[in-house]
Amino acid sequence: MSKTAMNKWYYWLSLLLGLFLFWNTQQLTAQAAEDQSLQKVKEAGVLKVATSPDYPPFEFRASVHGHSEDVGMDVAIAKQIAKDLGVKLELKNMDFGATLVAVQTGKVDMAITGLNPTAERRKSVDFSKIYYQGGQSFLINKSDAGKYKQAKDLLGKKIGAQTGSLQNKLAKERFPAGTITGMEKTPNLVFALKSQKLAAVGVEKPVAEAYVANDDKLAMIDADYQLDANETGAAAAFAKGSDTLATAVNQSIDKIQANGWTKDYLRQAGVYMSDNTADTSMLRYWHYFYDGFLNTSLIAVLSILAGIILGVVLALMKMAPLKLLRWPAVAYIEIVRGTPMMVQVLLVYFGLGAVINLPALTAGIIAVSLNSAAYVGEIIRGGINAVDAGQKEAAQSLGLSAKDTLRFVVLPQAFQKIWPALGNEFISVVKESSIVSIIGVTDLIYQLNVVRADTYRGVAPIVVVMAIYFAMTFLLTRALNYLEKRMNHG
Questions:
Q1: What are the two backbone dihedrals, phi and then psi, of residue 134, each rounded to the nearest 5 degrees?
Q2: Rounded distance, CA 221 to CA 254, Å?
């Protein structure tokens, strides 16, 4: 290649590179100019915050003036931030693992739930300044205090940590593979510890102190991790590019730290925790279980009714001679039956919720209904195919149209044949709807975890919820059996 030709290549390459850099700079400038995160909050007059109230003293629930409320250090900080912004605070309760997804999908403006700003998380969300640095500890059984005096004594032992947490990451780096157990809920980990299934549970130091102060069967030791100050401690999380909101929140954090309010927040959290554990009888928490029962019943009833209607439509579409109708139904049923309901719930709440801002309860009902419809559709299709062809011919010979034949002859007989299978599906809906607790729907399972976190009791809340579920399914079974007998004698 000649020198002149090479110069031309360099010229055009430099020009393209310059245009790219100019475009990239313009894009970054535009993004910065388009950051309306703070303005959006102020215009709405509400700061939506995701939290997981099962992690005292950071966030948990307590009875305040006769009403169940979210309390704890994180909640107090969120209230102060909202106050400084001049807006109302709206807390969105959900599983810990769903809080960052809620931030990324725009369901909330901020998440504050004892989050550690790790390098992995910083790739997906932005963080505020660290508002509390508490350190890391291990919870152990007091009976093992003589055996486990230091963290190194736990080598080769089973250690638990919350799934997706910094404690889980640190434990995997420090201890041998295969010795780390992850669970979604800290109360579940503590219960596993107390039942000797785990030797220790990794938690933040304030959490360990809270458990030890309220449970005389537990003790704590220092985790002795070599920590990166930029990854430890607790910080609030925002969607990428929410610079104006993050700046405003950082100003509130500076104010809180300058006044030493975090100590006051922790002290008040300790008061609520002492009140929670003063009387841990399940009777005291009856309204938690009652509210959970009402929401579980509502989800089950509406999902069953919607499932039947959609199921009939899917069954008829799958049996239609036109491929245009048949293939969508086949695809829908296979996809729903081939994926976990948990994934479907998350997809409806966060995926569909990115387009339509659905409340958690509404999203839960939609997800469970869509899931049930796929199974009901197959049950109904089997029932329709089981109806003798002669019944259809007889109805047509009497002058009934295809529509009337289906409505008055085929479907009634099909439902009579499939009623036991439908009954089993209805009972499954009641039990499996518990998965909606992952997005913060206050059903029975959600309330179970709240009560366990508040009372530090592992078994009693489980027994109560089991009894309620059994009563619900037992009564439903009796009702279905009664209707089946009426059908058979009709």
A1: -105, -20
A2: 31
Q: pLDDT (tens digit, 9 = 90+) per residue, 136-185? A: 999 999 999 999 999 999 999 999 998 888 899 899 989 988 889 998 88
Tokens 């030890």 sit on residue? 212
Give the tokens for residue 389: 């062809």
Task: Spell out a b/e string for 55-94, using b for 16 or more CB atoms within 10 Å of the CB, else e.
Answer: bbbbbbbbbeeeebebbbbbbbbbbbbbebbebebebbbb
Task: Quote the DSSP letter at residue 406.
Answer: I
First to last CA, the chain: 94
Q: What's the CA angle centered on 121, arms 100 and 205, to 5 degrees?
A: 85
167 is written with which tokens? Answer: 């404690």
Instruction: Tell if the pTM clears 0.85, that is, is over it.
Output: no
**Whole-angstrom distance, CA of residue 196 vs CA of residue 193:** 5
In angstroms, what CA-CA distances link 91 with 77, 304, 404, 458? 12, 30, 51, 26
> Taking CA 150 as the corner, what is the angle to CA 458 and CA 165, rounded to the nearest 5 degrees?
50
Amino acid, single-letter form, for residue 217: K
Report how far residue 449's alpha carbon sits from residue 185's, in angstroms, rounded to the nearest whole number: 8
d(CA 226, CA 207): 19
Three-state SS annotation for 132-174 = ECCCEEEEEEHHHCCCCCCHHHHCCCCEEEECCCHHHHHHHHH
> What mean pLDDT is predicted for residues 335-344?
92
Q: Residue 136 corresponds to which amino acid?
A: Q
- pLDDT given for residue 353 in this prediction: 67
Please report which residue ranges of 150-260 form alpha helices under DSSP H.
Answer: 166-174, 186-194, 205-214, 243-258
Q: Which two tokens stand for residue 285?
A: 């928490």
Kindly compute the dihedral angle of the four CA atoms of residues 303, 309, 311, 316, in this order, to the nearest 10 degrees. Answer: -170
Q: Of 32, 186, 52, 62, whose CA–CA distance to 108 is shortest?
A: 52
